[in-house]
Amino acid sequence: MSDSSISESESASLLSKKVSRRDMLKTAGIGGVGVLIGAAGIGGVMSLSTAAAPEENKRGDTVPFYGAHQAGIVTAMQDNLYFASLEITTTDKRELIKLFKDWTVAASNLMKGKPVGDLSSNGFLPPKDTGEAEGLSPANLTITFGVGPSLFVKNGQDRFGLRSKQPKELKDLPKFSFDALDETWCGGDICIQACADDPQVAFHAVRNLVRIARGKLIIHWAQTGFQRTKNAGNVKETPRNLFGFKDGTVNPDSKEDLKQVWVQPGDGPNWLVGGSYMAVRRIQMYIEVWDRTTLKDQEETFGRKRMSGAPLGKEQEFDEPDLEEKDENGKFVIPETAHMRLARGDGTQQLLRRSYSYAGGMDSKTGSIDAGLLFIAFQRTPSKQFIPMQQRLAGLDKLNEYIIHRGSALFACLPGVKKGGYIGETLFN
């Protein structure tokens, strides 16, 4: 249950270009006048009553769309997430290819802070862009596309003549012990992950991409997510989950480690080289129960100190844990059921975690708060990384007393695309 990070040098380079919205307002000389702020999840709004954001700020808040890999995987985590799992309704492969081509143009524009199309001069036609991001900066928006196993074969049918291209690794995740999966939150033919430092920018991206797909796709499930904002704390500090513990301490960040994120030549079909597998788990947290648990039990559940994030028995967050250390009673300092110990295993299975907290109001069945984590992890080989790790956690993890897995999906995130090409081109050609 950890989040993602990139190397400090990459992060510093990206953040040095960042101009906060607060600084933008000061520069514009308008202070707090004409600003409306809403903070209720994805509905939160920050709009200017007059001029759009200066062009120089937009350039500082932009992540490139084109490249060898898709953005939104090793990109520094943004503040907000809008994730959508989609079902294909068309049966025409040509329509599907055209959709991916249209999405390529639209996503490139959206990540530059531009609308998806020119405003129609005919007032009797709907505008091509829905308009709620007008005047906002790109807010480091990234859009990441993935395809699920059901894109290839569904109910035994080869839907688009792609059966032979389905990677062996791309199949529904197994049901693990203690799973209580709800099909409402499982699977999908295609996914869109939109991350941005502004919730309205992320929502606008998914809304317009889905609108472009009208008649070809429908939303199967969707989830908003958040982490602490860059204005609220030190961006170099590991963010915390809703249990109050640091989330994302262990993440691959070196060039060598990132080989465990990207699909390599020889791993499977060549069309996925440069892509990555995305495991998604919607995890509900029983926060009321957790809030009545002693600090000692909480720390032993995670295997880390709450305040510093250090492994038990150590002082600093990034200290190497000693899994053999025992106390005066002969018990392991880091309990055998600790989440950190089980997730670590022998240390060879690495995931790039890019998870976001969510809050969905009240759970109508229990009357408790519906809140938790949309766990997202990228990897090269799910059968050797996420699956064995999750099998260990499902068997012994003490954290299972406080969480339940409600949703599950696996997607193959497509390789990046060069200018002049389109996302998914290697799959469809």
Automatic annotation (TrEMBL):
Cofactor binding note: Binds 1 heme b (iron(II)-protoporphyrin IX) group non-covalently per subunit.
Signal peptide: none
This enzyme's EC code(s): 1.11.1.-
InterPro entries xref list: Dimeric_a/b-barrel (IPR011008), Dyp_perox_C (IPR048328), Dyp_perox_N (IPR048327), Dyp_peroxidase (IPR006314), EfeB/EfeN (IPR006313), TAT_signal (IPR006311)
Keywords of the record: Heme, Iron, Lyase, Membrane, Metal-binding, Oxidoreductase, Peroxidase, Signal, Transmembrane, Transmembrane helix
Cofactor(s) required for function per UniProt: heme b
Keyword Membrane listed: yes
UniProt-annotated stretches for the region Disordered: 301-327
GO molecular function: ferrochelatase activity; heme binding; metal ion binding; peroxidase activity
GO cellular component terms, A-Z: cell envelope; cytosol
GO biological process: iron import into cell
Main localization (coarse): other
Domain Dyp-type peroxidase N-terminal: 70-227
Enzyme category, top tier: oxidoreductase
Subcellular localization: Cell envelope
Entry keyword Heme: yes
Reaction equations catalysed: heme b + 2 H(+) = protoporphyrin IX + Fe(2+)
Family from the record: Belongs to the DyP-type peroxidase family.
NCBIfam families linked to this entry: Dyp_perox_fam, tat_substr_1
The protein, known as: Deferrochelatase
Species in which this protein is naturally found: Peribacillus psychrosaccharolyticus
Name of encoding gene: efeB
